[in-house]
Design a protein that fits this description.
Layout: H1 4-10, H2 13-62, H3 67-74
């Protein structure tokens, strides 16, 4: 980390304000990108869960077992 005292002598207040503004804009952009990526991940996981749900229903339909038999065999003992 740089020494604040040395840097203050070399940088104008206006330059510092511009750097701060750019840094804030970067934080906003990266935050928006992060939120977008999280939303996309959430949507993909929901689709994955829906596919798994469909597969489970199809397996149940194709199964020879009754609902009660499947339910009882899936319970933790």
């Amino acid at each position: 980390m740089r020494s604040v005292g040395k840097d203050m002598a070399r940088i104008s207040k206006e330059t510092l304000k511009n750097q701060i503004k750019k840094a804030e804009e970067k934080v906003i952009r990266t935050g928006e990108a992060y939120n977008k990526a999280c939303d996309e991940l959430k949507e993909l996981r929901a689709k994955e869960k829906a596919i798994e749900h469909e597969e489970l229903i199809e397996a149940f339909i194709k199964s020879c077992r009754s609902y009660e038999r499947l339910w009882n065999s899936s319970k933790l003992k």
